[in-house]
Amino acid sequence: MDRKIEKKFWNKKRILMIGGGAVVALLLIYALIFADHRATLNVEKDKITISPVKKGTFDVYIAVTAVVMPLKTIRLDAIEAGYVSRKYLEGGSMVKQGDSILKLDNQHMVMQFVTQETEIYRLRNDLQNTRLNIRKEDFLEQQAISELNARIDAAQDLYDRNKQLVDEKIVARQEFNKNKFDLEGLLKQRAIKLESQEYQRENAKMQIAQLEGTLARTQRNLDLMKENLNSLIVRAPVSGQLSSIDVEIGSSITAGQNIGQIDDLNGFKLRADIDEHYVSQVFAGLKASFEFDGKSYAMVITKVYPEVKNGRFQADMTFEKETPAGIRRGQSTPIRLVLGKSAEALLLPLGGFFSDTGGNWVYVVDKNGKQAVKRNISLGRKNPLYFEILEGLQPGDQVITSSYENFGNKDVLAF
């Protein structure tokens, strides 16, 4: 008799199906819970820059470009107007104090000088003639007084004799009175003559003083005009280098016009162009350093020009001790300008990443070196070499510091 055979529930096919489904379910659960869902981008490691984070001294300074200039520059300005008739030296020549540089001609000034000189001669002749005339008149007055004194002596003698004779009634009273009146008249004439002579002498002194004063003033004017004529020859006020002379023969020059300059080569200074961002931080007395021929030279800011042009202002710096041998006027060189005290800090080298992230995050390479992961950070100060790290990084971290422009906003970079 036939017997019905019952099928088993856990047959091989069912076990395989259930087992396969369980494995798929476990994989799905793992993918949902444990798998890395961050956006990843594959990059070539040799095309990026990786820099280490290190602990060191953070120097607060900026690098600026400065130009070597003479310590003193003397402007050559024309004292008088004229046209250039001769040019003795060209720009770049070495000059000694007093050397002639160029000559100006001014016919109007020459004519004025000749006229003034002629006036001097006339005044001198007038003064001499006045002195001669006064002396002559004085001699005539003295002669007249001398003659008057002789007449008075004679009248006095006659008066004295007639007075005795009139008492003896030998001479008539009428004749005696006439002698008396004659004597008194002569005495009055002499008194008037003496007073007139004194007045003439005082008047003569006044005339002489006025003429001498006029002559002295005219002479001073003539001397001044002579100095002005001498100023038509432009001379070097100091020894140095005639760095520029901006005129040519035949040029018309006005009084006060700048015609060139002389550089005093006994010392040099550097003039730096600085970004206006630092205008409140730069002041006289601030320290700087200058590298030349493998040696560092200490400098100090002596003058700040606060006027801002095209987003920059200027400052002058001088050497604190020795001046480097071999530097030349117009030479351009980088200067390290110290803005604050140095301090220990975590340092991250500068790089193009900052323009892409604003310094808010970076890609940090993991320990196995196979990928770099985005990490938020906080940066502090900046100098020409490093950023100061405040948060987010540790010494030894490897950071991609080149540009992130081609990375989009990926969380992970795989090498």
Automatic annotation (TrEMBL):
Domain called Multidrug resistance protein MdtA-like C-terminal permuted SH3: residue spans: 345-403
Keywords attached to this entry: Coiled coil, Membrane, Transmembrane, Transmembrane helix
Pfam families xrefs: BSH_RND, RND-MFP_C
Domain of life: Bacteria
Chain segments annotated as transmembrane: 15-35
Main localization (coarse): other
Coiled-coil regions listed in the entry: 192-235
Multidrug resistance protein MdtA-like barrel-sandwich hybrid domain boundaries: 82-258
Protein location: Cell envelope
InterPro entries: MdtA-like_BSH (IPR058625), MdtA-like_C (IPR058627), RND_pump_MFP (IPR006143), UPF0194_transport (IPR050465)
Family: Belongs to the membrane fusion protein (MFP) (TC 8.A.1) family.
Name this polypeptide is given: Efflux RND transporter periplasmic adaptor subunit
Organism in which the protein naturally occurs: Chitinophaga nivalis
